[in-house]
Design brief:
Blueprint: H1 3-9, H2 11-50, H3 61-81, H4 88-92, H5 96-126, H6 141-144, H7 146-166
Helix pairs in contact: 2-3, 3-7, 5-7
Length: 181
């Protein structure tokens, strides 16, 4: 069966595949952008302090907030690429049925964690209201909303993978990180 015939038979599968492809690209570029921004901010701060002998006012605050945002968006990225912390060596040696059940349970727990992070992170982010950073005229919410967004993305990725695993369209081995062997 061709890829087009398969997509025509399973329009939901096609929607999930496109969503997954879009999400992967968006996470790639967001993580690259945040890491690049952090790299630039830290280098400018070091350069101005040690070469120009004059510190910038935001040298600690702004990179710290960018790092916090990178942490939560990066967690979603690692969930998507299956490179998050786990015990995959144990799962690799399990029989296929048990492996599928363990992976499904893991995805359910990850989705629950992501949902809780999104919910409580949203409450925490909203509590900052219109507060601004001390050293730069930027709203704190710009960085604080990374927590609920990262949590929602973790939940979305986990539920999408769980749906694929339960329907048999995703093999449990495809959800493990690449082997170092």
């Amino acid at each position: 069966m061709s890829e087009q015939e398969h997509a025509a038979m399973h329009p939901i599968t096609d929607i999930f595949a496109r969503l997954d492809q879009w999400l992967t690209r968006a996470l790639d570029w967001t993580v690259i952008g945040l890491a690049g921004l952090l790299f630039i901010l830290l280098n400018v701060a070091v350069f101005t302090r040690f070469v120009m002998n004059s510190s910038v006012s935001w040298s600690e605050e702004l990179p710290a907030h960018v790092l916090a945002a990178l942490t939560f968006i990066g967690a979603a990225y690692l969930t998507r690429t299956s490179e998050h912390l786990g015990f995959d060596a144990v799962v690799r040696i399990m029989p296929p049925g048990l492996k599928r059940a363990v992976m499904a349970g893991n995805l359910l727990l990850m989705a629950g964690f992501g949902a809780l992070l999104a919910y409580y992170g949203g409450i925490a982010a909203a509590s900052f209201g219109s507060r601004m950073l001390i050293s730069v005229d930027l709203p704190m919410g710009l960085f604080r909303w990374a927590m609920p967004i990262g949590g929602a993305l973790i939940a979305l990725v986990s539920l999408t993978r769980l749906a694929g695993l339960v329907t048999g369209q995703v093999d449990p081995d495809d959800l493990l990180p690449e082997s170092d062997a």
